[in-house]
Design goal:
The chain has about 1000 residues and is of the alpha/beta class. It is built from 47 helices and 19 strands. Helix 1 packs across helix 6 and helix 37 packs across helix 39. The structure holds adenosine-5'-diphosphate. InterPro entries: CARD (IPR001315), DEATH-like_dom_sf (IPR011029), Leu-rich_rpt (IPR001611), LRR_dom_sf (IPR032675), NACHT_NTPase (IPR007111), NLR (IPR051261), NLRP_HD2 (IPR041267), NOD1/2_WH (IPR041075).
């Protein structure tokens, strides 16, 4: 029998040999060999290696191609297979005799690109241990951009795949790039070790002046980033000692990305949605760790451990750029604001212009810029001067310095559609995971016994644990551990509680103990509160975050007030500026602004309504007296917002301030204001806030459209809804919460893509537990996580369905969720597509199925459930008579899992819909499922797309369908069938979809 015939005959065995391990390595090696022999051309290779395609599909494609190329190629294919497969693994099929055709062809490639192909198998093994160094060589010789590097480095690739990708890119770049790689490998072989930056000699001329500048810049960046900035006023903490990984995720669902993102992925290629754009946005709430993350990136770059593809990194703070009044050119921006070159400025700037792919800019806090992003004013010339915001916007959109990568941070509310269209990708920073909280607390306390006590205390205070998910709150809680450990019943629950805790902590630590007798701590420090409060308040109104001595004087801020530690000296790169101050953190500024609104007798009556309903604003109120020289002479975007001009998403600081005002006016804190304001004034303010919240909620409900015929009434949350819920939570008054939802009569509450994390979950549960009728709560595509799941438990009795797709939930979260959910009679449906679930969660579902004979739907698609998990689920299904929908799309249950499920569902009278798409199910599984078709009286749809069922498996399904007229469809797209087989089977059974 010829090798060509054998390729057909042994197709299943070959597929099994190359794919059953789940690793693509064997297939890749076979492809390398065939490419090197010229049996496949690069175009063939690309047609096979289509990203996102399953290993089985790629292998099938190769088999078709090899077969089509004829007998010689088939012989070489078998030779490659024999070379690649470990002894014994090819035992399932026979190799044809490999004659002279199977030996390597004599080949003397004439060009470097062809050498690259001819030596591909050995180059892959040479390069796989030193891809980084090879990339470096390609970058400094100007052949690779950072985008190319990122493409090679994608974490989904194994080291050998990275080497292959590198070679593919090099081939596309042409001869000169190929030469660099071959020369690099030669040098490596010569030196016997991996080559690093020092001993690699770039062939191009050496830019000495740039190298010197790079050294100066990196030592300045290193000096600025090695300590955590907001500790300036309290203690110095080295970033290395305290930095804790936050959760990073892509804003857009990206099927290829599994597992959490690492710091390197912020700039890397992962999740790129617009390859033409240069700007990556890192978004996250205030206090979520955006500045700290950038600081970490800066430090690692300065040390040469990360972002090595960038020779120069220029860090900017939008907060500081606000105070730049002069028009600037790009050159002045870089050199004046970041690092001044001691010599050869022109040459260095020219180098920057000539090598954009070696340069990285970072802009921290775009939301703090006085001007909202706009792309109306275009600027293309790097030497032309313009106001700093115009410069910045043009850099971000790429009309200036195209090709330079930029990383920008901002709160999500401040990012509008105009900016979004210029983004390469958006990465969400979502605070600490439960283990992150633990890690942070342990790093924060040098005494492990104290750390353990703080953690034990946090575990008993659920709401507080939810708050600690936010790094800034975690810092406060750790910082105030004595107060925390001392409080029993009255432990902090709201964000306002936590900020009051730190206020008290700072006051008590900075003043003499004897002075605190007799009067309340707040009364004692009222002057400081009012001075700093006014400063904060005026600043929020005018988007001013850095204050000059004159600003401090205007608000009566004294040296004593500064000593309390809420203000820190502003870090400014320019030595010429006078000493300026800023609040420890923006959240702290909002808190002081709120304190001012609540405690000042002078505060205007209209402030509260302006704060909650800026669209109705009159001319008075917040921000009207723009008295600060350091920040602005014209009111900034907050001011515009207060004048009703800007969209509500552009006023995140006002929203935070309003949230604090709600908290400070809660009944629990009202005694604090007794000595500052007449109680009638405070009571009036409370009534005003309650009225605004109630009005705001009812406005949302009024916007709900009537239900479409045949569907239940559904509300899709509008911007601002979650914020109102948070304000209500801060008030901690169940009457307000009840009133808020009393008119909410919907069956389904949709809060997808609403930036909901644990803090928001706590507030949601607090309010939704008062709903009159259960709802379907749809929280897909947020960052609920395990901590958030725990926060939701109090409202579980009011949820008939819970949709938590794409929320980073693990088995532990599910354990807690189901332990409560099992006792909630209304709770009937759950959807958990794309979380972090493994087999360990299935025992809880099994228990649920056994205990609840009214549960309707479980969807666990795109998790990591294997045969073991399927067997656990099957245990539960055996004794369940209610489940109608079971979704396991994109797991790994294989044949054994499918057989176990099928035997449990054998004669199901409830299951209507079953999906086992993309689960590695073969003929054994199909055979068992055929029995379900035969016997079940309820099943209507069975999804088996993207599996490895062959003709005989599908035959079983066809036979079974003959005995079942109720079944509507069986989906078998992308299984292991030839075109002829598909045609034949389709003719015989119309309910099969291929
Ligand atoms: P944002 O820029 O998002 O407002 P910051 O980066 O200023 O937030 O973080 C606020 C505070 O939270 C920091 O000063 C620090 O105390 C703490 N923090 C934030 N992120 C981290 C982190 N990754 N590791 C340790 N502490 C952090």
């Amino acid at each position: 029998m010829s090798a060509q015939e054998l390729v057909l005959r042994q197709r299943t065995e070959i597929l099994h040999a190359l794919c059953s391990s789940g690793s693509a390595e064997h297939l890749d090696q076979v492809l390398d060999i065939l490419l090197s022999q010229g049996e496949l051309v690069p175009e063939d290779y690309q047609n096979i290696q289509v990203p996102g395609r399953s290993l089985y599909t790629k292998t099938r494609q190769l088999l078709d191609l090899v077969h089509a190329k004829g007998v010689d190629t088939c012989v070489l294919f078998y030779a490659a297979l024999k070379q690649v497969l470990p002894e014994g693994q090819g035992a399932g099929f026979s190799f044809p005799g490999i004659g002279s055709n199977g030996e390597e062809k004599e080949d003397h490639p004439s060009t470097s690109t062809r050498t690259l192909l001819a030596q591909r198998p050995s180059l892959v093994s040479e390069l796989q241990g030193c891809v980084e160094d090879a990339l470096h060589a390609l970058v400094i010789t100007g052949h690779f951009t950072s985008a190319d590097c990122n493409d090679v480095r994608l974490p989904v690739y194994t080291p050998s795949q990275q080497a292959r990708r590198l070679l593919d890119h090099v081939r596309a770049k042409g001869e000169s790039a190929a030469k660099v790689v071959l020369r690099y490998v030669q040098q490596k072989q010569g030196s016997g070790s991996s080559l690093n930056q020092e001993n690699w000699t770039p062939p191009k001329e050496n830019h000495m002046q740039t190298v010197c500048y790079q050294k100066k810049l990196s030592s300045s960046v290193s000096a600025q980033s090695c300590f955590l900035s907001t500790y300036g006023g309290t203690s110095h903490m080295a970033l290395d000692d305290i930095y804790t990984e936050g959760q990073l995720e892509l804003a857009h669902y990206c099927g290829d990305v599994h597992g959490p993102l690492g710091l390197e992925d912020v700039v890397g290629a992962v999740g790129t949605v617009n390859k033409e754009a240069d700007t990556v946005l890192v978004s996250g709430d205030a206090g979520g760790g955006k500045s700290t993350l950038l600081q970490r990136l800066h430090l690692l770059w300065a040390r040469g451990t990360l972002l090595r593809e960038f020779l120069l990194l220029f860090p900017f703070s939008c907060r500081r750029l606000n105070s730049e009044r002069q028009d600037l050119s790009v050159k002045e921006l870089l050199f004046d604001h970041c690092c001044w070159p001691d010599r050869e400025q022109e040459e260095i700037f020219q180098f920057i212009l000539d090598h954009p792919h070696l340069i990285l800019f970072t802009f921290d806090g775009l939301d703090e810029l006085k001007h909202g992003f706009s792309d109306e004013h275009r600027l293309c010339c790097p030497t032309q001067r313009a106001p700093v915001q115009i410069l910045l916007f043009n850099l971000i959109q790429g009309s200036l310095m195209k090709g330079v990568r930029k990383v920008v941070t901002s709160r999500p509310e401040a990012v509008g559609p105009v900016l979004k269209k210029h983004l390469r990708k958006e990465v969400l920073l979502q605070g600490f995971t439960p283990s992150g909280i633990e890690c942070f607390v342990r790093k924060h306390h040098s005494d492990p016994a104290v750390a353990s006590k703080v953690l034990a205390s946090l575990r008993t205070k659920n709401a507080l644990l939810g708050l600690c998910h936010s790094p800034v709150l975690c810092w406060i809680v750790s910082h105030c551990h004595k107060e925390l450990l001392g409080c029993g019943e009255g432990s902090p629950r709201t964000i306002t509680d936590v900020y009051l805790m730190i206020l008290q902590h700072f006051f008590q630590h900075r003043s003499s103990p004897k002075s605190t007798t007799g009067t309340s701590w707040l009364q004692e420090h009222l002057d400081t509160v009012l001075h700093l409060g006014q400063l904060a308040f005026e600043g929020i109104g005018t988007s001013c975050f850095i204050f000059s001595p004159a600003d401090l004087e205007t608000c009566g801020v004294t040296e004593k007030d500064i000593c309390m530690g809420f203000l820190v000296q502003s870090k400014d790169m320019s030595p010429t500026r006078s000493k300026c101050f800023e609040f420890l953190h923006l959240m702290m500024q909002c808190f002081f602004a709120a304190l001012y609104i609540v405690s000042s007798n002078n505060a205007d009556r209209s402030i509260i309504s302006n704060l909650f309903e800026p669209q109705n604003m009159r001319a008075t109120g917040l921000g009207s007296s723009s008295c600060f020289g350091a920040c602005s002479s014209s009111a900034g975007k907050q001011g515009q917002a207060l004048n009703g001009e800007a969209a509500s998403e552009e006023r995140p600081n006002l929203k935070i301030t309003a949230t604090f005002v709600s908290g400070l006016l809660s009944q629990r804190h009202r005694s604090l204001w007794l000595h500052c304001c007449p109680s009638a004034v405070t009571e009036k303010r409370v009534r005003q806030v309650v009225r605004c919240l109630s009005k705001g909620m009812h406005k949302h409900f009024k916007s709900i459209p009537p239900p479409v015929d045949g569907e239940k009434k559904s509300m899709h949350a509008m911007p601002g809804f979650v914020w109102l819920i948070k304000c209500i939570y801060e008030m901690q008054d169940s009457r307000v919460a009840k009133d808020a939802v009393s008119k909410l009569e919907v069956d389904h509450l949709k809060l997808t893509y609403c930036n909901i994390g644990p803090v928001e979950c706590t507030a949601l549960a607090y309010v939704l537990q008062h709903l009159r009728n259960p709802v379907g709560l749809q929280l897909d595509n947020n960052s609920v996580g395990d901590v958030g799941v725990e926060q939701l438990l109090p409202c579980m009795h009011n949820c008939h369905s819970l949709y938590l797709r794409n929320n980073s939930i693990t088995d532990e979260g599910i354990r807690k969720l189901l332990a409560t959910g099992i006792h909630c009679d209304s709770f009937r449906k759950i959807a958990l597509f794309n979380n972090k679930l493994t087999d360990a969660c299935t025992q809880h579902f099994s228990h649920l199925l056994k205990s609840r004979q009214d549960f309707l739907s479980i969807r666990l698609g795109n998790n990591n459930i294997t045969e073991e998990g399927a067997k656990q689920l099957a245990e539960g299904l055996k004794s369940n008579r209610s489940l109608k929908y079971l979704g396991l799309w994109g797991n790994k249950i294989g044949d054994a899992g499918a057989v176990a499920l099928a035997s449990a569902l054998q004669s199901s009278t409830s299951l209507v819909w079953l999906s086992l798409v993309g689960n590695g199910v073969g003929n054994a599984g199909a055979g068992a499922l055929a029995n379900v078709i035969r016997n079940s009286t309820s099943l209507e749809e069975l999804w088996l797309t993207e599996n490895c069922i062959t003709r005989s498996g599908v035959e079983c399904l066809v036979q079974a369908l003959k005995e079942n007229t109720r079944m509507k469809s069986v989906w078998v797209i992308n299984n292991d069938l030839t075109l002829e087989e598909v045609e034949d089977l389709r003719q015989r059974e119309s309910r099969l979809t291929f």
